[in-house]
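Reopening closed ticket. The problem is back. First fold of the pair:
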Amino acid sequence: MTVLSARYAPPGPEFMDRVSVAAWVEPGLLGPECHVLLTPARPRLAESVERYRPGLLGIARGLGLGRPGEPYRLGLGLLLVRGIASLDYGHWDATLNVPYPPTWYATAQRQGRVNVAVGLSRRELGGGLVAVHEYLADMAEAGGLWTGVTAWRRTIPAAWLLRAV
């Protein structure tokens, strides 16, 4: 089993605009399944996608993700609160908001879990699920994909409570 090094710390809120988030629902063996794919966003001027790699690996580490094909991994990183979906990836003061299509939130609540993948290469938008599945297969083959399942954590992170004060 592959374990990500502790040198990949979960990034703070300043990194969140460097992450592209895609969420969708598709048929699974036991009914509809929710998915989230995190990839590098379009690089800023004078930056490269390679610079985003440590932050993405920090998110993957914080969510407890592993290489595709390794034993099933389940973390408690899905937060569903009043219509807002977030991933708690282990940073003490930040979560990653997940924009989602209409049926995603209700399905995530009903299933209590979401399949999460972190890809280390940029993905062009468009192409639908066919393009997403091609990207996932290509990244898995290239060794640039981290996957797992995160379950609905029904408690609010302490950092959220501290912000309310």
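Second fold of the pair, where the issue appears:
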Amino acid sequence: MAHKAEQQTQQLSIRAKVYSPFKVYFDDNALSISAVNATGPFDILPRHHNFITLLSPCELLIRTPRGDQKIRISGGIMHVKADKVTVFLDV
């Protein structure tokens, strides 16, 4: 039964990695990611369309099955493709 619950979580999650040239801030599955770009706040959910954007200074919110993680950023680049989100900071 636990295996089935794990499969459901994986199907409803995205793989997220947030890092800078010298540090990895997050590298795990997430339920959603919230951030801000020039047009305002937005959310990335599973099955999101391919997407790339420049991030504005904000608190990046990563929701996981184990709780939320917040990362204060001064800006960055977000790339979303095939349920994989990569955030490059300090570039």
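Update: turned out to be a display glitch only; the data is intact. The beta strands are 14-20, 23-30, 32-37, 40-44, 51-55, 58-64, 67-73, 76-81, 84-89. The longest helix spans residues 2-11. Please close again.
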